[in-house]
Amino acid sequence: MEKNAKWWIEVAVIIIVFVIGFIGNIFVLIIVHKKNATKTIHGIFVTCLAIADLVLLCFDSFVSILDKFDITSEVFRCTVHLTVVTTGYNAGLFTIASMAVHRYRIVTHPWRPKLKLKGAIIWVSLIWLAAFILVIPLIVVNKLTENGCEEVWPTLGHRQAYTASLMTIQYIVPLLVTAICYIRIWLF
After folding, report:
1. pLDDT, tens only, 61-85
2. Minimum mean pLDDT among 19-23, 63-67, 108-112, 174-178: which range?
3. 145: which strand partners?
4. Which of the two residues, 4 and 44, has the higher pLDDT score?
5. Nearest Cα to 44, choosing from 131, 126, 110, 112?
6. CA–CA dist 166, 175 (Å, integer)
7. Where in the numbering of this chain does the G-protein coupled receptors family 1 profile domain appear (predicted)?
């Protein structure tokens, strides 16, 4: 298979994004660890966000490069890749919303009891659990067919309900939570 200029540019962009993202997130993890920030609530959230980014970056970039060389296993893509990437993506979004909630509580209610380190670790664990639970329906309905990996839902209604729920939980709720928290901080 002959590779044209567009193909090489796409491969280069994937590699550049991967290298910059990987180095950046590794630096974040090193700095948080060196500054003992993993003993702070903010450090826990930043670590969680960096790990979610790394999960997404490593799996998605890896599969994108394999795709470019026509090496990707459909079984891997249909099972592991989709599950891990969607879980990492959800965890990142939920972490950003959680950071907004935490900042809101600290700024607007400074005299209330603060979140403890143990509570933050439990919170982050619940973020990852929720991120994975949202993917379970996809794990169940993704099937390898002659056309590749497809979602085989019992009915169109099930597919639409899941898509609407996922969009609401994955995008709309974190966006609203983050926006409301920062607007309330601004108005405080």
Report:
1. 988 888 888 887 888 888 889 999 9
2. 63-67
3. 148
4. 44
5. 126
6. 13
7. 24-188
Handedness of CA 30, 25, 168, 150 (dihedral sign): negative
Residues in the chain: 188
Residue 76 is encoded by which pair of tokens? Answer: 């891997």
pLDDT of residue 1 exceeding 60: no
Nearest to 61 by CA among 3, 9, 4, 19: 19
